[in-house]
Amino acid sequence: MELNILYQDQDFLVVNKPAGLTVFPENEAISEKTLIDYLIEKFPEIKNAGKAPRYGIIHRLDKDTSGILLVAKNSQTLEFFQKQFQDNKVEKKYLALVVGQVKNDSGRIETLIGRAPSDRRKQKVYLAGQPKAENKREAITEYKTVEKFKDYTLLEVLPKTGRKHQIRTHLAYLGHPIVKDPLYGFKNQPEPEGLTRQFLHAFSLKIATPKGEEKEFRSDLPTELKNAIKNI
């Protein structure tokens, strides 16, 4: 597989991840190669960062989410970037096509998130003071409307925290699940002709580098997602 490397230096690289590729194996055994396998083949020094199987992967993208992913080549850089993520100093932006017309042109979703007891694959929104809300983690997502269509809204989404499935969980909680989301979508929801995966793309990441610079990396919307908008 040909990797799309947007940037690299001696400390880290930025890869434009395609949809359909798992970033690294977590709890379950995966038979197909993951992104970290392909990266180590081309950049074996990534094994110097962190521990298997994650190595230098700093943050995740879900298997069917495309876009920008930051990867450290050594443990010092890994720790440097991890601290920025922990302190919420990284600005990540996504484009998401959601079902229905979102009422507000911008908004902020602030809840707790934890694993859904009814389905271990999913996350669930909890509100403070609710039963079983203790020990759940704070999750904050901001959004603004890019364009409205008859049955859909294109949103720019800024997660302020980094919980698993946060954007997908929050938008479904808002009543506007991401188009073609197999886990969080509603039954019989509309979908654009020809779209084969969830419409979620990480298009921008702004971060301070170990050299003291602030860099912003950007990734164009993939052709399949551009075509989905044309087909609306």
What does the model show?
The chain has 232 residues and is of the alpha+beta class. The chain has two domains: 5-87, Pseudouridine synthase, CATH 3.30.2350; 91-203 and 221-232, Pseudouridine synthase, CATH 3.30.2350.10. Helices cover 16% and strands 32% of the residues. The protein has helices at 35-42, 75-86, 166-173, 223-230, and strands spanning 5-8, 12-17, 66-72, 91-99, 106-115, 123-126, 137-148, 152-159, 200-208, 214-218. Strands 1, 2, 3, 4, 5, 6, 7, 8, 9 and 10 form a ten-stranded mixed beta sheet that branches. The two termini are 31 Å apart. The mean pLDDT is 95.
Describe how the helices and strands are arranged.
Layout (H helix, E strand, L loop, with lengths): L4 E4 L3 E6 L17 H8 L23 E7 L2 H12 L4 E9 L6 E10 L7 E4 L10 E12 L3 E8 L6 H8 L26 E9 L5 E5 L4 H8 L2
Parallel strand pairs: 3-9
Antiparallel strand pairs: 1-2, 2-3, 4-8, 4-9, 5-6, 5-7, 7-8, 9-10
Biggest sheet, open or closed, and with what strands and sense?
10 strands, mixed
How many structural domains?
A: 2
The CATH superfamily of the largest domain is known as Pseudouridine synthase
Structural class: alpha+beta
Strand content: 25-35%
**What is the class of the largest domain in the CATH system?**
Alpha Beta
Using the alpha-carbon principal axes, give the shape. Answer: globular
Uncertain segments: none
Q: Roughly how many Å is the radius of gyration?
A: 18 Å
* CATH topology descriptor of the largest domain: Pseudouridine synthase
Proportion in helices: 10-25%
Distance between the termini: 31 Å
DSSP helical segment count: 4
Number of strands: 10
Overall mean pLDDT score? 95
CATH architecture of the largest domain: 2-Layer Sandwich
